[in-house]
Write a structure and sequence with these properties.
601 residues; binds flavin-adenine dinucleotide; Butyryl-CoA Dehydrogenase, subunit A, domain 2; alpha+beta; 17 helices; 52% helix; single chain
């Protein structure tokens, strides 16, 4: 059925609404992400979760942000207790997320009314809705899924009970994951990790230790530990005589407590952070903490890379929702607020802002969830598939680009809310603070761009990328889309030229250009994806995404300095504003017949 433009004036703010129903971009993403057999089930689940996120969880998140977790390292008698005190509303958010909506359950076990578990893309889309409400809480939620993923793949039995607790939808039994990599001397440079793991004296092992686990004791410190008291935390450490660098690292599960007592570690302090206050991030000193080896010794970095892929995609999903939630706030404000006698959204410059921000949002979501889809496909097809090589290339780019877009997007949405947007209590203030961490944790932009070079070199990712882009551009047939595809083809030729040049240059030169290369891959792949999807939508009777693709090509590939001379009025028209920013359907026939408006219109 054709969609009417969304009436954002019907809302007072970007809360007390269903985030799923108010977000046709995410609904469009789901159409491509899920296999046909899962789609109806997933839609109902996402809609119900979108309602809870837009009401209870969003309001609880405001309260938790104003009353963040506090650490009580010692009890009144000076004994270490490592107690983190949470606002009670945090527990309600956890019960809803893990218990009622099975966020870490449904991708590992069949939900009650289904035959099998869903793909990882489902957890990522659920996390996107959760991050619409609480960017901080998404961090432990995502690490819970990530830790379970590692145990499912690499533990051959001893840690089964932890896996079951991480993935249960019985909230009373549920535990959360965490990942402790960073030390003072190295966050990106994980190979510099110094934390030691000594085999434990069997006489001293706790009653809680799993029967067949290889038990060690950890000594050293970790400098940034989010969800510090996660009972299912994974940490990298070096066993005696292990190699230097990443090759010598092993992975351990380090519980927060054993035998209901603190586990040989001291939570030194929580970081006094700018944002994501709902998740406690702190420093840990290991003083012989009981730890269980995951898989085999000295394979920890490989195992952790599996979790990092998921966490980086989670970061991209959180970036998508940082843009989505604050854009919703901006649209509500622009539809409600009058200035100089008109509502803001009537003014050409504001229309342009909202159209361009929506196009950016569509681009971030399309790229992120294409990488998520590939994550699921490569799981079925294995390491020697195009999906694997593409996933390795696209995930670091998704994380890098969407995080920077989220910083810009939340900042500009704040500006659209005017002075209020800067004030505590308005969603833009919290999300602006929260978004600043998105480019930093899970790897900063430079480090991710260097990972892109590794994917090209070690996985030969370009061999899979080139036909992938070509196929999508070849699918474009509609006359409105053809000239747009030409622009993307030209950038695609530049990308191929760039790849050929880098292949013949030294490593320093490649590093110097790595971020620009990542930008170009993002723009070309996103352009090709949006055009392919626009063609599909046209065939199903809707031309809206053709306008989204046009907006993307205009801002990424066309020379904007000449646009003033050339009478460019794309976002001024009612058709484009209603279609792109307010998600109204467009009859494909209007795409070809409507000429570009001129100054005389
Ligand atoms: C709120 C918060 C929570 C966190 N939670 C966790 C957690 O739970 N677990 C965990 O393990 N870590 C966590 N971290 C740490 C985080 O992952 C690291 O801070 C991050 O990976 C960067 O590492 P670093 O701080 O050592 O910076 P560095 O690696 O020193 O990087 C500093 C700068 O140098 C650049 N750079 C580094 N290497 C190169 C290079 N070769 N070429 C060019 N530029 C380079 C980077 O891009 C960056 O801009 C958290 C951090 C924050 C802020």
């Amino acid at each position: 059925m054709p969609a009417d433009p969304i009436d954002y004036a019907a809302l007072d703010e970007a809360a007390d609404c269903n985030y799923w129903e108010y977000d046709p971009t995410l609904r469009g993403v789901a159409e491509r992400l899920y296999p046909e057999s899962e789609l109806d089930w997933a839609r109902d689940r996402l809609s119900a979760f979108g309602e809870v996120c837009g009401t209870t969880i969003a309001h609880n998140a405001d309260l938790v942000d104003q009353n963040p977790p506090e650490l009580h390292t010692y009890d009144d008698y000076g004994e270490v207790q490592n107690h983190v005190e949470y606002h009670p509303k945090q527990f309600e958010n956890e019960r809803l997320t893990y218990g009622e909506f099975g966020l870490s359950h449904d991708v590992f076990h069949a939900p009650e009314d289904r035959d099998g578990p869903l793909g990882m893309g489902h957890a990522l889309l659920m996390q996107t809705l959760l991050s619409y409400a609480d960017q901080g809480f998404t961090c432990p939620a995502s690490m819970t899924v990530g830790a379970a993923l590692v145990l499912e793949k690499f533990d051959d039995g001893p840690l089964e009970e932890f896996f079951q607790q991480l993935t249960t939808d019985d909230y009373d039994e549920h535990i959360e994951g965490a990942m402790f990599l960073t030390e003072k001397q190295g966050g990106s440079d994980v190979g510099a990790n110094e934390t030691r793991a000594e085999p434990a004296d069997p006489e001293t092992v706790s009653d809680d230790a799993p029967e067949d686990a290889e038990v060690y004791r950890l000594y050293g410190e970790k400098w940034f530990c989010s969800n510090i008291d996660g009972q299912g935390a994974l940490a990298l450490a070096r066993t005696p005589d292990a190699d230097e660098g990443t090759a010598g690292l092993s992975l351990f599960l380090v519980p927060h407590e054993v035998d209901s007592e603190p586990n040989g570690q001291v939570y030194r302090r929580l970081k006094d952070k700018l944002g994501t206050l709902s998740v406690p991030t702190g420093e840990i000193e290991f003083e012989g903490a009981e730890a269980y080896l995951v898989g085999e010794e000295e394979r920890g970095f490989k195992y952790m890379a599996e979790m990092m892929n998921y966490e980086r995609l989670s970061n991209a999903a959180a970036s998508v929702s940082a843009i989505g939630r604050t854009l919703l706030a901006a649209k509500v404000r622009a539809a409600d607020r009058e200035a100089f006698g008109n509502v803001l959204e009537e003014y050409p410059l504001m229309r342009r802002d909202l159209v361009e921000m929506t196009v950016d949002y569509e681009a971030a979501a399309a790229f992120t969830f294409e990488a998520a889809r590939l994550l699921d496909v490569q799981e079925r097809e294995g390491d020697d598939s195009d999906a694997y090589r593409l996933m390795r290339l696209l995930i670091p780019i998704a994380k890098y680009r969407t995080a920077r877009m989220a910083v810009d997007g939340t900042s500009y949405a704040m500006e659209i809310l005017g002075g209020n947007g800067y004030v505590s209590g308005f969603v833009t203030e919290r999300f602006f603070r929260d978004a600043q961490v998105l480019p930093i944790w899970e790897g900063p932009s430079n480090v991710l761009s260097l990972d892109v070079l590794r994917a090209l070199e070690r996985e030969q990712a370009a061999e899979s990328l080139l036909p992938y882009v070509q196929d999508r551009l070849d699918a474009v047939e509609h006359p409105h889309l053809e000239p747009l595809a030409e622009e993307v083809r030209s950038a695609f030729a530049d990308l191929q030229q760039g790849l050929a040049t880098l292949a013949g240059e030294d490593g320093d030169y490649a590093q110097y250009h790595a971020k620009k290369l990542a930008d170009l891959v993002f723009d070309v792949v996103t352009g090709a994806l949006l055009l392919e999807q626009a063609q599909d939508d046209i065939e199903s009777g809707d031309g809206r995404r053709a306008l989204v693709a046009e907006g993307f090509v205009n801002t990424r590939f066309r020379d904007e300095s000449r646009a003033i001379d050339e009478g460019e009025r794309f976002a001024m028209t009612d058709q484009v504003f209603d279609a792109v920013a307010r998600y109204a359907s467009v009859d494909p026939a209007e795409l070809v017949t409507a000429p570009e408006p001129t100054a005389d219109d």
